[in-house]
Amino acid sequence: MQIRQESAGDEQSIGEVHAEAFSVTDNPKAVPPEVGLVEALRASPAWIPALSLVAIENEQIVGHVTCTRAHVDKVPVLGLGPIGIRAVRQNHGIGATLMRAAISAADGHGEPLIGLLGSTTYYSRFGFVPSSQMGISSPDPSWGDHFQTLRLVAYRKDITGRFEYAKPFELVVGHNQADRLVPNRRMKLLGWFSGQ
Predict the structure, then answer these.
(1) Which residues contact 174 (CB under 8 A, 6 or more apart)?
(2) Backbone angles phi, psi at 159, to 5 degrees
(3) What is the pLDDT along the chain (196 residues), one digit of tens a residue?
């Protein structure tokens, strides 16, 4: 398996990855909102090309993760997600490999921290802790410990306050997707991540 930055021409395959990863069994032909979220993030000022990573096997994209510009109060930080793996390759360690690569790339980019909404069991293995332990409040208090943060090398203790995702997260929610995106029980249960 190879991990590399997203490049021109990857957009369709990345959309297919998230469509498979987040499909719902009761309506498998419906396009999951995560597909549109990635497209909206890519078109926004929050997009950081160096932090959009793909996993390649047999010359095919099998996984994708992105970190985009977020803020804690006015301090620039990163929001991670979505992360998705093609259905046939889930539970083969691709997600963990993408997570480690994303964390390493974010550190190399000089970022202070990453925030995400997800499973405390899964993401704690990468060093994520409930954001409240770092003095950072979740965008939605109902998320509780599921909203987590990870200190990177450039972290400073004075980075405290309310975490805000990039605007496309709010825009997607505004299109009657609140049951599927922020705030979202499914994200809490699955860690906004499909396949490990």
Answers:
(1) none
(2) -85, 95
(3) 999 999 999 999 999 999 999 887 777 678 888 999 999 999 999 999 999 999 999 999 999 999 999 999 999 999 999 999 998 998 899 999 999 999 999 999 999 999 999 899 999 999 999 999 999 999 988 889 999 999 999 999 999 999 999 999 886 654 333 344 444 434 433 344 444 4
Q: Give the DSSP letter string of 46-87.
A: T--GGGEEEEEETTEEEEEEEEEEEEETTEEEEEEEEEEE-G
Helix H segments across 22-173? Answer: 33-42, 94-108, 120-123, 167-173
Tokens for 84, please give them.
């998705």
